[in-house]
Amino acid sequence: MFDILQSIVPTALFYSAPLIFTALGGVFSERSGVINIGLEGLMVMGAFVGIVFNLTFADVLGAWTPWVSIVVATIVGAIFSIIHAVASISFRSDQTISGVAINMLALGIGVYLTKIWYGKGQTDMVQQPFYTTDIPLLSEIPIIGPIFFQGVYVTSYLAIIVAFIAWYVLYKTAFGLRLRAVGEHPMAADTNGINVYKMRYIGVILSGALGGLGGSVFALTIVSNFSHSTIVGQGFMALAAVIFGKWHPLGAMGAALFFGLAQSLSVVGAGVPLLADVPQVYLLIAPYVLTILALAGFIGRAEAPKASGIPYIKGNR
């Protein structure tokens, strides 16, 4: 049992990290009142930028390359999300259609530039990805240490820390109160002097930053290159985690951990006695089936922010 946990837990954590980052981005966007179907596209853009930057500057930055890569991907993701913000907030276009357009645009840009720059359908493998490590002191704790803190990616625990920071920002600060106010009742927020458009822009840009971060972490820990199939469904799983987690940062983190566990079983399932005889294809589709079942079971009891998806027109009642 101990050996099984030691193989499942670290794998589940590193599959969960990109989902946690991206789901938190979705929480910020939807709490501000803007539906963001474009999380998949934001992850694609983050993965593309993270890999290309890593390949380009690995010789210059050395061991710091993956860390600088995810920072650059975070910035580019934030900038890229402005397209969705302008379309859905300033031009009041349909937010779902705008999000789908973001998904298509990101994949198109990534695949096109990959073919132009690398002459093939995928980039080279990065030489400076993230590596597993032991967390000092914590890894030496009996029983718990080997399971949770040995052979793990630092990004896994960074994601969990960011989730708690997001919870604090949303529920314990004046900024978070304003952001939630414009997502629940924008007219009342406007009456109280809160700039609804500004807060919604911030929410969408934060979702872009966290989506780009999630995509780059996925690419630099799990696949180590970029192609059209690097990000396939992870953004939608993150969106599902937002809904499953009831638009709450810690709820989204918990849902992302659940989906990450489901993904990890397709990798380590052969070593688990109960799953050893299950055909591999069933383990591969399990995360998506569980996503559907989770939403089917809980979406009816989860209430989205009341103004989510509704463009705000100043002065209209």
Automatic annotation (TrEMBL):
This is Sugar ABC transporter permease. It is found in: Cell membrane. It is a multi-pass membrane protein. It comes from the Bacteria. GO terms for molecular function: transmembrane transporter activity. Its main location: membrane. The keyword Calcium does not apply.
